Predict the structure.
Amino acid sequence: MLKTLIIGNGNVASHFIKAFTKAGTIEATQLDSRKIDTISDYDVIVIAISDDVIATVSEKLKDTTSLVVHTSGTVAMNVLQTKRKGVFYPLQTFTKDKSVDFSKIPFCIEATNATDLQILSTLAKALDVKAYEISTEQRKKLHIAAVFVNNFTNHMYTIGKDICDEHQVPFEILLPLIEETAKKVKELSPKEAQTGPAKRNDIETIQSHLENLNLHQQEIYSLLTKSIQEN
Amino acid sequence: MLKTLIIGNGNVASHFIKAFTKAGTIEATQLDSRKIDTISDYDVIVIAISDDVIATVSEKLKDTTSLVVHTSGTVAMNVLQTKRKGVFYPLQTFTKDKSVDFSKIPFCIEATNATDLQILSTLAKALDVKAYEISTEQRKKLHIAAVFVNNFTNHMYTIGKDICDEHQVPFEILLPLIEETAKKVKELSPKEAQTGPAKRNDIETIQSHLENLNLHQQEIYSLLTKSIQEN
């Protein structure tokens, strides 16, 4: 059995406690970060709280000999003020009240030595998730890449919906296309999967599209078209 | 039985003939567009060929009394030089050699009168697909919206992969996030689903991300961040 403590009571902590409890070989306890007092020994203590309070909360754990990890995509491992430190970062978007298939989430793990890294591997295996050894520096870049494929992609959906709404076209017509676009890059690299007027250099269609957009949309359309053509 | 003729031998025509043949209540014949000579009567003749030759090929069908439709997202219905005309446009991205679940494809249908529209509804029903009555003008806007949610989204994936490659991070770590982002907008509007530093107006993270990107990526990051903030 892996003896674990999850500190935090937000969104990520809730998803964690649910998944940890479900796994057969993990014993999990949850604790509010304001209630840290004397802490007994654990195999792993997981701090699942907001980025900006990770350092402060870890300060309260500076006497423990347990391995302490945070779950953030952006915070460096070394902000942890504990003797043993690590990262156990799930690369997924968690929405409150929407269940997530935990087994599909890739975890980025980091530690200061091979023994602690092995403990995090064992924890990932117990949760039946895939773990990738990723440094603080790489995790930072991965987080930026995630902004493009998640936040900016979602904004493309917003603009698509704006165009539909303006012309009384139901946005749901686009949902199967959105799904297929996401699926395609499992089989092809995104560069190979690229289609459309920009890729074909179809000047006439590009021109006609621009004439049908507002100034704000035109600016985005032009920049991304140029970017596809130069890629 | 619906008696149909599919003209063309490209990507879309192949997907069509496969799906038409599979449907129990459709009789389908395929014909190369260069071999149009005398044509017998059909319930629907589907011209599934490149946008730029639709008008020319339809010219050869100007004597038929059959309903003639094209399958293009951008070409106006009225370019058809036939007596009866319509549109039967599948809103999906077809990749050669990759099978598509036809039943999930939304079809945009258009015709000049209620009788012909009804025939296209019946054809959609026989194929077990959902049909939406969409005008030429709306179809044009929908096609532009599709460029955003498909072509530009795929380009976001390309940039994400570029960042990963540059720092020896496997792109596959991002695939579950890509899939979840696409799924989320089935339940929430994209505006509600928006997360990330731009949405939170997290200036510090935005600044740090910009410092880690090349000039070209910075330009896109800045414009899309601004667009999310103004939305």
Summary: Chain A touches chain B through 86 residues (CB under 8 Å). The domain at 139-230 of chain A is CATH 1.10.1040.20 (N-(1-d-carboxylethyl)-l-norvaline Dehydrogenase; domain 2).
